[in-house]
Specification:
CATH architecture: Orthogonal Bundle
Keywords: Heme, Iron, Metal-binding, Monooxygenase, Oxidoreductase
Shape: globular
Number of domains: 1
Oligomer: single chain
Strand order of the largest sheet: 1-2-3-9-6-4
Structural class: alpha+beta
Helix content: 40-55%
Protein name: Cytochrome P450
Mean pLDDT: 89
Distance between the termini: 61 Å
Organism: Streptomyces laurentii
Order of helices and strands: HEHEEHEHHHEHHHHHHHHEEEEHHEEEE
Family: Belongs to the cytochrome P450 family.
Strand content: 5-15%
CATH class: Mainly Alpha
Number of helices: 16
CATH superfamily: Cytochrome P450
GO molecular function: heme binding; iron ion binding; monooxygenase activity; oxidoreductase activity, acting on paired donors, with incorporation or reduction of molecular oxygen
Length: 409
């Protein structure tokens, strides 16, 4: 252990103080003094915590830092992690991960996503039309930030709305942090998600349509189709990732803008061509992750050196993406929300092998949603004091329970 590490009190991950507005304040000191440091994890084993951008990006791309090792039966329990299973794409490495990703990648190319723009615009406009007709105040989470991405991913996959509605509650349970017992909410949530998709996949086999789920059923990779287990698991993973993270990022971004950055909300309303660049800054600055990491730790499959620190085979590694996104070496004045910031090489979608498959879809949904809100409701404001707005606690993401808003025009 270096003298710098010895001089630091051993932190406990997740660090205290993370919010949707910023990562835990303790990360600034770690970035400066020990960007790769040994920490305790709540309810789990020791782990290496990576906080600086350069080392975080390197760790995310290093195949020796394995996700598959974290889901083996004898794997150590790492605090701050979400539950996942070996057959989920986020839990795979190497050839297995590449095979599943290759089968779905065609549906998520930039060209294919751009072709979805008119449909996503139609969905957003329809929901906003209903919102405007009713008048305020309304709960923006219930009326817009959840139903919009939920409808989009449902249409993309070809999953009926009755199944999607069941996903909302079960997905919330599934992303519970450190709730990994045999009968935990997280495990039960994952089981319910799996069960609800079995019938959908079986029906798609009999009645294929023009949707991603039908394409996955028909897809082959070197003559090999996805197994039933892989199809069902992949489908609920795509739905969860496709609506929950987008819904939470959108709700928190709107809250940040109308409660704390009114000048920048007005700046967008003045010229909506600014929205795409603004979305990149919202992704960097507005903190999605409640533990300041994506909840997907890694275990070193062999000895690794990172940031001058030797990480031994079998050691756990946690990558604090939110902290890396505030690294002053990469982002000048990193704690300031600057919707015109460029360049903006944030790590909010990850990097390397596990770079988010749906990143272009998420970007487009956020752009269309923010554009629609500033266009239709330029004077959107909170209907209650921010201190009265409830949050879901214990999840991997900062997730608003409600967002009461109103407007006058």
């Amino acid at each position: 252990m270096s003298a710098t590490e010895q001089a630091l009190e051993t932190p406990v991950f997740p660090l205290a103080g993370s919010s949707y507005r910023c990562p835990a304040p303790g990360y600034a000191r770690l970035r400066a003094e020990a960007p790769v440091v040994r920490v305790r994890t709540e309810g789990g084993v020791d782990a290496w915590l990576v906080t600086r951008y350069e080392e975080a990006r390197e760790a995310l791309a290093d195949p020796r830092l394995s996700r598959a090792e974290t889901v083996k039966p004898d794997a150590p329990r790492i605090g701050g992690a979400m539950t996942s299973s070996p057959d989920m794409i986020i839990s795979m490495d190497g050839a297995e991960h590449a095979r599943l990703r290759r089968l779905a990648a065609g549906a998520f190319t930039a060209r294919r996503i751009e072709q979805m723009r008119p449909g996503i615009q139609r969905i957003a406009d329809g929901i906003l039309d209903e919102l405007a007709l009713g008048g305020g105040p309304v709960d923006l989470v219930e009326r817009f930030t959840v139903p919009m991405p939920l409808t989009v991913i449902g249409e993309l996959l070809g999953v009926p709305m009755r199944v999607l509605r069941m996903f909302v509650a079960n997905a919330r349970d599934f992303v519970t942090v450190d709730d990994q017992g045999e009968n935990s909410d997280s495990v039960n949530g994952m089981a319910n998600l799996f069960e609800s998709m079995v019938e959908v996949v079986a029906d798609k086999r009999k009645n294929p349509a023009q949707d991603l789920l039908s394409d996955l059923i028909a897809a082959r990779d070197s003559g090999d189709r996805l197994s039933e287990q892989e199809l069902v698991t992949f489908a609920f993973t795509l739905i969860g990732a496709g609506f929950d993270t987008t819904a939470n990022q959108l709700a928190s971004s709107v809250l940040a803008l109308i409660a704390h950055h009114r000048d920048q909300w007005n700046w967008l309303a003045e010229d909506r061509t600014r929205v795409p660049r603004a979305v990149e800054e919202l992704l960097r600055h507005v903190n999605l992750f409640s533990t300041d990491s994506a909840g997907n730790p890694r275990i070193a499959a062999e000895d690794v050196e990172l940031g001058g620190v030797k990480i031994a085979k079998g050691d756990a590694v946690v990558i604090a993406i939110s902290a890396a996104n505030r690294d002053e070496r990469v982002f000048p004045d990193p704690d300031r929300l600057d919707l015109a910031r460029t360049p903006n090489p944030h790590l909010s979608f990850g990097h390397g092998m596990h770079l988010c498959l749906g990143k272009q879809l998420t970007r487009m949904e956020l752009e269309i949603a923010v554009d629609g809100l500033v266009r239709r409701f330029p004077d959107l404001s909170l209907a209650v004091p921010e201190s009265e707005i409830p949050w879901h606690l214990g999840g991997i993401n900062h997730a608003l329970s409600t967002l009461p808003v109103t407007w006058t025009s």
